[in-house]
Automatic annotation (TrEMBL), chain A:
Residue span, Aconitase A/isopropylmalate dehydratase small subunit swivel domain: 6-117
Protein name per the record: 3-isopropylmalate dehydratase small subunit
Record organism: Kitasatospora viridis
InterPro entries (UniProt xref): 3-IsopropMal_deHydase_ssu, Aconitase/3IPM_dehydase_swvl, AconitaseA/IPMdHydase_ssu_swvl, IPMI_Swivel, LeuD
Alphabetical UniProt keywords: Amino-acid biosynthesis, Branched-chain amino acid biosynthesis, Leucine biosynthesis, Lyase
Subunit structure: Heterodimer of LeuC and LeuD.
Family stated for the protein in its record: Belongs to the LeuD family. LeuD type 1 subfamily.
Any one of the GO BP annotations: L-leucine biosynthetic process
EC number, as in UniProt: 4.2.1.33
Automatic annotation (TrEMBL), chain B:
UniProtKB keywords: 4Fe-4S, Amino-acid biosynthesis, Branched-chain amino acid biosynthesis, Iron, Iron-sulfur, Leucine biosynthesis, Lyase, Metal-binding
Entry protein name: 3-isopropylmalate dehydratase large subunit
Function: Catalyzes the isomerization between 2-isopropylmalate and 3-isopropylmalate, via the formation of 2-isopropylmaleate.
PANTHER family assigned to the protein according to its UniProt record, in alphabetical order: 3-ISOPROPYLMALATE DEHYDRATASE (PTHR43822:SF9), HOMOACONITASE, MITOCHONDRIAL-RELATED (PTHR43822)
This enzyme's EC code(s): 4.2.1.33
Assembly, per entry: Heterodimer of LeuC and LeuD.
Amino acid sequence: MGAPLVQHTGRGLPLGRDDVDTDQIVPARFCRRITRTGYDDALFADWRGLSGFPLSDQAYAGATVLLAGRNFGTGSSREHAVWALRDWGFRVVLASSFGDIFLRNALNNGLLAVTLPPDGLNLLLGRTAADPAAPISVDLAAGQVEAAGHTWEFEIDGRARELLLTGADEIDSTLERGDLITRYEAGREPWTAKVG
Amino acid sequence: MTLSTTFSTTGPTTGSTTLFEHLWNRHLVVPQESDPALLYVDLHLVHEASSPQAFEGLRLAGRRVRRPDLTLAVEDHNVPTDSTVIRNELSRKQVEALRANCAEQGVTLLRLGNSRQGIVHVVAPELGLVQPGMTVVCGDSHTSTLGAFGALAFGIGTSDVEHVLATQSISLAKPLSMAVDFTGTLPRGATAKDLMLALMARIGANGARGCVVEYRGEAVERLSMEGRMTVCNLTVEAGARAGLIAPDETTFRYLEGRPHSPAGAHWEQALDQWRGLRSGPDAPFDRRLEFDASTVVPYVTWGTNPGQAVPIDAAVPDPGELADPAARAAAEKALRYMDLRPGTPMREVRIDTVFLGSCTNGRIEDLREAAEVLRGRTVAAHTTMLVVPGSMAVRRQAEREGLHEVFQQAGAEWRLPGCSMCVAINGDQASPGERVASTSNRNYEGRQGAKARTHLVSPATAAATAVSGRIAAPDEI
């Protein structure tokens, strides 16, 4: 499902806010569409008009690495939040923590969500504000973020890493275990609820 | 661990296993060889807002829904509550997409106007579809509600909805386990909603991030299933993946005789197994917290996340008194958005609209609590009140009890079921600057309409607030 992502270098966008829930990333009214793409107009729609909001600042045009704060992507499970970030052009989000469902959604759409320590994030935020063109490099294969003369190691679980590196379809790989699912089903209690 | 033992761990939990661990192990399709694990899904709930892209993906890949008999679809997010005609074109197209997808794939759908339609997390338990020991997923974060039955229930994104449709299983990194032990019992006048707002005021809107939280203690045992669902519903607002309450006689009484509950000999077999579903006395949790329920009073939020809450007698807090710079900055930003000054008593905050409903507080007991306060009283002249039952069944029950007359005589609007102002994409929403007292679960910026301001409260507090036109507790009117 996701496009492969092995190594990425791009400019940063210094969002730098804590507790950005998915209602802010994409307001609910944009969740009435039936497509998986075309959400670039929805991204941070209610914050775009605010003065100084970096997404509306031409200095950061072309940024592909979102620099968030603490608890990014909490709240609603809406995958539209990840679709909108991808549609805008982001390939990487760096934050000091993430909402659980957002992390899964990011993985499922080839958006690399990486946890960095707060001081590292602050350094990158300051650096990007001072020099919007400064490159940030993320190497998934090596598990490293490199920018401003610093290197940070990050961890990502093995399966997620493999899916991101190859862009493999997780449904395909699960369907290959179809016999195990069938076997599990044979052991379910006969009284477990059924809809039909 | 061999495959055969994975499939046969249906016995009771042991002294050193948590209920969560037991549910997890019981649903591993393959022994846990890696993280994330592959879990079997017993019940998949679907709604119109998070599913169209999943069905489309299925179609493009030429796949079918593996288990339509374990899948239930409901129309709730986009449906209007003042008529059965969907006027908004985007909403209507999304609902029509769900209808076409369900017809094509053989999935049972509770359509707008159906006698069982309503909010997915209200409807599924009413039908007896959510049972102890199950795994339940839905493309909605408030699926955590259903953990009230001793089921592992959690929200997923649309790509994972597609994965479940195709495989009836879900890939999931194992969450941490957390126990919240309530000491004491809830005082009279304090509700499940207040208990959770008080808990979040202490641990913060991300105090349980990454965890499956099991609630224990007399305060929880004494709650009805409706109250327990409110507790588990709000667990996700503390950043948790799921909430969990061990099943007991209250659970079994609720389930007995429901349309999809086991019957006859199966009921006895089910009970035998369900009675064993509890954490062992020595079970280790990754995190543990004690919270004194006897100190809980009616709570109200002042900020823009559910953890920014205070007792209703308190004043708007002063961000300057917060030691943590991040919390201080968040409080300053929240107060700017909410247009509140530090030191203002919460009871002096004037309210334009009161919303009673949602998967947090749209069940029959919530309506009864609010009606009790409203009986013989009138909604303040400058305030409007919307009463939105969580389901058609709740609406019918309320009408049997005459609650709708209490609401209507007080001047409140009696509506049809749906997510209504909680998600605010169905025509029910607040205007910019409008201030809402809401029984829902999220007071985020713009949640109930762009630039609208939300204060989360319990149903009884919502009713008292409607009467006084300012934030008010039931004991003062």
